[in-house]
Amino acid sequence: MTFDVARVRKDFPILDRTVRGGKPLVYLDSANTSQKPRQVIEAITDFYERHNANIHRATHELGEEATQAYEGARIKVARFIGAADESEVIFAKNVSEAINLVAYGIGNATSGRFRLGEGDEVVISEMEHHSNIVPWQLLCQRTGAKLRWFGVTANGRLDLSSADDLINERTKILAISHQSNVLGTINPVSDLAARAHAVGAVVLVDAAQSVPHGLMDVTSLGADFVGFTSHKMCGPTGIGVLWGRRELLEELPPFLGGGEMIETVWMDHSTYAPPPHKFEAGTMPIAQAVGLGAAIDYLREADLAAVRAHEHGLVSRALQALSEIESVRILGPTEPVDRGSAISFELADVHPHDVSQVLDDCGVAVRAGHHCAWPLHRALGVQSSTRASFYLYNTLDEVEALAEGIRTAEKFFKVT
Amino acid sequence: MQLESLYQEIILDHYRHPHHKGLREPFDAEVHHVNPTCGDEITLRVTVKDSGGEAAVADVSYDALGCSISQASASVLTDLVIGKPVSEGMEVSAAFLEMMHDRDAEPDDEVLGDAVVFAGVAKYPARIKCALLGWMAWKDATARALSSVNGEQT
Q: Which residue of chain A is at minimal alpha-carbon distance from B8?
């Protein structure tokens, strides 16, 4: 069965609207946040209209329904990523919070495998989003551990030539992105995780850009922690996920203390609930969890293999169309191999803000700047870039609209 | 196309041929400002002088990386403040800030001079920081220059 993008588009009410004085919206900023299908919006509305109550503590029918809806979403997430058990799925605010949860939890460890100190090393890469850099800088500052990182090659792949040096007996943590939010590069996470495990390190994967495309089986990936966020996968903002191996979640000290994460509380000490609740302090984003569950249902229904094939077609065509424009320089892999559906580029010496402004005037929504990956831009020798990213609802016509918009920007800024 | 309301010809001219660009000696204060959302940056130096008992702007020199709006804005700024009393420059700066933050207000071209061409930026909230980058750097550097000069005098 072929993928019916026209039918998919009907599910996303926002795609019908016009922008900038009547131009059809061409939304190419899904790596930033995805649009939401009616099914997700309705699930959230239905929860608020019919089932709203606090979870785990309300002793009435609504409370039971709300708890069931929230915990039901956890089960959907677990199945979506191939987790052994839903107790390995922790809800957080977003990927940043998921990564901070691990980093601060480790920082709170006074003994055991998570204790970190001088002589220990934390390894990241230059390709990371700031959310997978700054928490580790903070952790290293607190503990005296040393932060090290993989560089990137000129064509936007991880420079693995230093892997033997970087991953050694001092390595305690490897934190790496599954797919670059700037370049689209898909990293060989399983191989790196195997190396890291061989020296006894724990492995965290930032999967914000891969999970939305159904590219996640936590069992075969080989990582210990995986973070991703709802709003990039057709779900609402305000909720993200940390998956962790059960035995590690049991050992990892809590991050945020408060209601619902406890087992017992005395005035001078507390004991904690088992995972996942140990890491879910206070009232959680309940309706958002329900929305995420609906987004997962939606993506499964859409058939993720077909979605990926559709996206591959879009990216292949976009890479081709952009490479035909002489003044465009694509950052990162220019072939549609081991790369996802984000393409960042430069247009001669026209600043990305100016490129995106012209595109916006054509109705084409992209992102301009360093995309929360300043070190990566520095490593590639560019100040900033323009990024187009594709998702299941985009069309080949929209790829042409992007190319046309770039040519308009060329003319407007007199690129010769 | 609505683009022309944003990218006035004067803006594009200043962008292509910026005035007073480059860092010059001597200077009384230097600042480095960045726009963290896009990575645009400016290094700006200010020299002040005494002009009949009043502080005046002797020179503003700068080096900057950024979009057409931020580059042109810094260039227009130098035209408007160099040689003027600091108080007058601050008045322009305040009027510029007001123009950015109140898209319905009628900008005062008597005060703003060429800077009035940036009125269209107020309609694009994401670009306001671009237009303000140079002005914020100038205000900061001037305040530092004045305090360092005053410090030397006392």
A: A412
B3-148 belongs to CATH 3.20.20.140: no
Q: Please report residues of B whose CB lies closer than 8 A to that of A413.
A: 68
What CATH number corresponds to the domain at position A273?
Answer: 3.40.640.10
How many CB atoms neighbour CB B63 within 10 A? Answer: 14
User: Which of the listed residues A243, A264, A299 is the one where a domain comes to its end?
Assistant: A299
Query: How many helices (H) and strands (E) in chain A?
Result: 14, 17
CB-based contact A354 B39, cutoff 8 Å: no
CATH number of the domain within which A308 lies:
3.90.1150.10
Contact assessment for residue B54 and residue B84, using Cβ atoms and an 8 Å cutoff: no
DSSP E strands: which ranges in A266-331? 270-272, 328-331
Q: Is A304 exposed, middle or buried (0-12, 13-18, 19+ CB in 10 A)?
A: middle
Out of A140, A234, A362, A372, the active site residue is A372
The pair of structure tokens assigned to B137 is: 């750097």
Pairing, β A146-150 against β A202-206: unpaired
A370 touching B (Cβ < 8 Å): yes
C-alpha closest to that of A114 among A293, A253, A230, A211: A253
CB neighbour class for A119 (10 Å; exposed up to 12, middle 13-18, buried from 19): exposed
Q: Chain A: give the shortest CA distance to residue B36, in Å.
A: 9
Q: What is the ipTM of this complex?
A: 0.89
Specify whether A68 is located in the same domain as A174: yes
Q: Which residues on A lie below 8 Å from B68 (Cβ)?
A: 351, 353-354, 413
- Give me the domain span that covers residue A285: 41-299
Annotated catalytic residue A140 = no
For every one of its 416 residues, what pLDDT tens digit does chain A have, with 9 covering 90 and above? Answer: 579 999 999 999 999 999 999 999 999 999 999 999 999 999 999 999 999 999 988 789 999 999 999 999 999 999 999 999 999 999 999 999 999 999 999 999 999 999 999 999 999 999 999 999 999 999 999 999 999 999 999 999 999 999 999 999 999 999 999 999 999 999 999 999 999 999 999 999 999 999 999 989 999 999 999 999 999 999 999 999 999 999 999 999 999 999 999 999 999 999 999 999 999 999 999 999 999 999 999 999 999 999 999 999 999 999 999 999 999 999 999 999 999 999 999 999 999 999 999 999 999 999 999 999 999 999 999 999 999 999 999 999 999 999 999 999 999 998 87
Of B151, B141, B118, the residue nearest B62 (C-alpha): B141
Nearest beta carbon to residue B39 from set A369, A412, A413: A369
Q: Do the domain assignments include residue A399?
A: yes
A412 interface with B at CB cutoff 8 Å? yes
A361 touches chain B (CB under 8 A): yes
